[in-house]
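User: Can you write out an input/output pair for a complex, sequences first and structure second?

Assistant: Here is one pair. Inputs:
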Amino acid sequence: MPIELKMAWRNIWRNPRRTLLTISAIAFASMILVFMLSFQLGCYETMINTSVKISTGHLQVQAKGYLNDKKMRLVIKDPGQVARVLDTIQGIDAYTFRASGFALVSSDKRTYGVVVTGIDPIREASVSTIKSLVRKGTYLTEDDETTALIGEHLSNNLKVDVNDELIILGQGRDGSIAAAVLTIKGIFNSGIDEFDRNVIMMGLKGFQEIFSMGRTVHQTIITADSLGDVSMVQQEIQNNFSKTKEDEYLAIPDWMEIMPGLLQGIQIDLVSGIIMYIILIIVVAFSIFNTFLMAMFERTREFGIMIAIGTTPSRITKIVMFESGCMTIVGIILGIVIGSLATLYFQSKGIYIAGTEDILKQYGLPDRLYPRLSMISASAGPLVVLVITFVSSVFPALKIRKLKPVEAMNNI
Amino acid sequence: MYAILAWRNIWRNPRRTIVILLAVIIGVWSMIFLGSLMRGMETQMVRNSISTLTGSIQIHHRDYRNDPVVENSMDDIDNLDKALSTSLGQGGALWAKRIRVNAVASNARHSGGVILVGIEPEKEAKISFIGKAVTSGRYLKSEDKNKIIVGRAFLKKFNTKIGNKLILMSQDTKKEIASKAFRIVGIFSAESESVEKQFIFVPISQADGMLKMGDKISEVSIILPRLDITGKEETRIARKLKAAISNDTYHVETWQQLLPMINAYLEMSGFFLYIWYFVVFVAMGFGIVNTTLMAIFERMREFGLMKALGMKPFQVIKGVVTETFFLLVIGITVGNILGFLSVAAIARNGIDLSALAAGVEMWGIPRKLYPEIWAQDVAVAGLVVLVLGLLVSLYPAFKAARFTPTQAMRKY
């Protein structure tokens, strides 16, 4: 250990009270940053997963142009071929096919315009959460063709219940009239009003028949093993499609393209969070800067003596920088440890804030929020604190170079 | 006496005073600034929602809000008119009647669900966004026959243009499907795309004829001359209206009841803001304690002398706390002035968020953000810093009071 470091370490414990207060300030800031960032990132991940699980999937395969237009005629002509490609790719958790179209749906009393979606009951259950969202009645079985699942709000609006009949009237893929009578088998509640008010689900085979789809579908919904695998899987599918020239009419949008609002919403929230953190860090930096500066004033006499007995000013500067470095590092390590422990505690317990349930539901978040500790959330904030405290300790330390031994020694 | 002594003391060493002041100023400034951004956003959110057809107060049939269909409309128009003009006659409140039902819009290629709003064009222009929102074509006139205005996003989705036809279908009072062809005469743009896709406007007489309403209406929307973000004024007037209408089947509701999400959001964010104030204070508090403590130790000889001259420990504490009080008051004042200035600088042009339009829409925040300072936040920020600042300064003050004359005066 160099002599400067040893001196620095001893110096900071010459005044333990001041050192402890400075370290606490740094630790406090690091702790708050670790916790808040973990909290935000945890919420984002839950939001993405909920949206992905309720409807969109991580990735989709669809006809080019379908994403923006949702036109009936923009179909995947050969879903079998897409399935063969997907079966060969690593990192895909599950996939399913869907077809959907707009239709008027009427009960005895009411008529509404809704989106009718044809799903493959078996495969759908492994891709989305829809099966677990059925609150009344039961989920579809494989050969259900004339039964439907309906959102809770829609069932209230239509004043219907399980086993009631609905008449749907829409337009088929070829422009013909698509009409059918469906029996309600189950009622689902996803918590997202928009979804619960606008969607009816029925068996894919039945849908293809009613809407003259033949064997075609509109979307292939894919979930990857994890959020991190999405871009790799997307690339892999793209490579396969370009080999067979299928990429000329098929597109592979990921969740960010499918739900640009979700991504940008997260960006906004993250940016506003970062602004708050920067302000907090500035306040902390000033606290620390003050302490360093005052300590410098207090020790002018000491430095004067050191210079007088032959220590070079640059060496004193070095000692002082080591001092602040030691305090910062101890503070940051403490902050990371305490912050991580607090995060881990709430990661298993969850955080409940009374009165926020309804708001959270709309963003696909549960009543209890779970922070999520990661390398990034544990290190990003403290790293910024490290840089800022270093910068704020440079200015006082540089003052030492201007000291004149005689004047300094006379200073009390 | 204490005041004069304390005031002179803090300026005996201006460098030290300024260092402490800086910490307080930065902290207070950050509180005011952050608070103003948040409050600006909130007010803008409420204003946007109110002008997006909500109004300050609405009157509906009792069942309309749960089941918005033509059956649940209000027919006692004369009584309603009388109640409105007696209780709102003076004071500058404006109101308009509407018919509002779910409908299906379709043209040759597309169809989709919309909300059909029948409006009194002249009156409506004064109470909601639609009056200023028509960007091309023209606004409606009350004598218009079969004319309609639609949103920009709707136009794109339906791939149509001004002058084209649009068919609307909905259930009429006889429970039959009524349909009617309209010609698009104008396009409106709104704060969010979903509003542009969701609402289409026709003159109220046309909606009345199409749905065979027989002069019944769905809602009355009232706008008060001033927005009271606490909702007290709205509640008072709603109560007055309710008494004047004296009809139990009609519900009078304020925007707080009509927009429960926004209301819950306002409460939640106010709560978070104050928590954040506390966090910032703690960060700042470490600095205050540390620097004050160092200042006390620097002046140990002085306190010893005072004690030797007969000052009681309590008097020393009072002296130190008075000094901190002056420091805090100056810091808070300057911090506030800086906060006001920086907010005023931003408020002139606002912060433009339209680059993140989709994300802005997801959180329902305005595209342009104008910060706004609330007296309540200034008071809370000032009080938090003052009260907690005085509390933490007790620690150095007690330290100073405990110096004994001999111990203190032996130093140096």
